[in-house]
Amino acid sequence: MSHKSRKLPALTVVFKFLQKFVTEREHTEWLETVIESKELTRNAFFHEAYRAILVSGVSFTVSLTVEKKAVQTLFPFEWEQLAEWREREFNSWCKKMARSLQQPRSDLVGKFRLKWRSIWDLALWLADFENDQKFQSEVFGDKNYGDQLTEDDIERLTLIKQETNRLQLIGPANRYYILRNLGGNFLKPDTWVKKFGNWYARTSVSELAKLLRDEGIHCGRFDVYLWKYCQSEIRESKHLITHFDNLFLHHRYGSHVVNERMVSLKEFEEQVWELEGIRIVVRDDESTLRIEPYACVSKANHKWTLTKWLNLRVNRYIGVDRSVVVVSGDGNLSHGNTRLQTVRDSY
User: Fold this and answer.
1) Residue 83 and residue 152 share a domain
2) pLDDT class for 50, splitting at 50, 70, 90?
3) SS3 state at 215
4) What is the pLDDT of residues 112-127, one digit of tens each?
5) Alpha carbon 56 to chain centroid, angstroms
6) Residue 1 lies in a domain
7) Does a structural domain hold residue 5?
8) What's the whole-model pTM score?
9) Count of structural domains within the chain
10) Nearest by Cα to 176 from 157, 148, 200, 195
C-alpha cells in the first residue's frame, strides 16, 4: 500500500489510543510530573540535563543501574555541591565508582566517565550565573516557566554550546528532551518519533509537531505516550511501521479506540500461537465471548517467565474474571516460573 493511497487516521484518534493504553497501565502522576510546566531555575535545568546525559546512547536500564551506583558512592546530585569539586575530587570519585561496578567493561567505564565529567562541567557552568534570574535572562531571554519555551530557546542552547564549548553531550535530541521535560510543547526527535513520522505520511518531526499543535494535542504528552507504548508493545523501532499499519490501516489487531472488530476466545488463542509459538487455553463459561485481538507484533523475550509474559501481555486482553493456562508440547500445564524458550522448545 503506497503512502498516497493510505487512509490515515486522524492524529486525535492515534493520541486517544496511546493515551488510553498508557493511562490504563500506568500511574498518571509520573506523566504529569514529566511534562508539567516547571519554573526555569538552575535546579530544574540540572535535574533534566543530567538525566538526559546519562541515558543518551545507552539503554534506560543500564543508565538506572549506573545512577544507582552513583548514589551509593555518594555522587552529589545537587549542582551547587558538585560545582565545588576540583579535579582531585572528581578523579577520586571516578575510581571509587569503577570499583563499585561488578566486572566493569572498559568501554562502559570510559563512556560513563565522559558522561560524569560532562555533568560536572554542567554544574560548573550553572555556578557561573549569579542567580536564577541571571540564568533565565541569559539562557531563556527572561522566560520564567517551561510552557513559555519555543523553538528559539532550542536555538539559544545550540548557540551557547557552540560559543562557549559548554553543555557537552547535550546534542539536538537531548536539547528537545530537556526543554520538553521543563514543560515545553516539543517532540524529542528520537528514533520512535522519527519512525512514527515516517509512518504518518512521511512527516518530518517538525511537521509532525505542527500537525499535533494544530489539532490541540500537547506534543510532550504525545511524545511520552508514544514512547511508553512502543517500549511495551513494539520494543524495536524497525517494527513500528508494520505495527501501526496493522493497527490502524489493516485493522488486523483492532482496539476499542480505533476498531470494533473482536475475536472469539478460540481465535485469540490461535493468534497467540501464531505469533508467540505458545499454546494457551482461556477458561471462561461464556462460549460466545469475544475479546480484542492480540495486538503484539513481535515475540516476547525468550528469557521471560510465563508469569511475566502472561501479566505483561495476555492477561490485559482476557480480563480479571477469566483464567488462562499454558499447555506444553507433552500436553501438561506449564508452571509460571518456566521460561518461554523452554515452552517453545517443547512443541
Assistant:
1) yes
2) very high
3) coil
4) 889 999 999 999 999 9
5) 12
6) no
7) no
8) 0.69
9) 3
10) 157
Q: How far apart are CA 109 and CA 106, in angstroms?
A: 5
Same domain, 28 and 43: no
Q: Is residue 255 part of a domain?
A: no
Do 68 and 86 lie in a common domain? yes
90 domain residue, yes or no: yes
> Coil, helix or strand for 39?
strand
340 and 288 assigned to the same domain: yes
Residues 206-258: tens digit of each pLDDT: 999 998 988 888 999 999 999 989 988 888 899 999 888 888 876 554 444 44
Facing residues of 333 across strands?
327
For 149-186, what is each residue's pLDDT tens digit? 999 999 999 999 999 999 999 999 999 999 999 999 99
Residue 277 has, within 13 A of its CA and on its CB side, a CA count of 14
- The domain in which residue 242 lies consists of 11-32+187-249
Instruction: Indicate whether 273 and 152 sit together in one domain.
Output: no
> Is there a contact between 226 and 196 (Cβ–Cβ < 8 Å)?
yes
Give the cell for residue 165.
Answer: 564549548
Strand partners for 290: 264
Question: What residues pair up with 255 in beta bridges, in sequence order?
Answer: 259
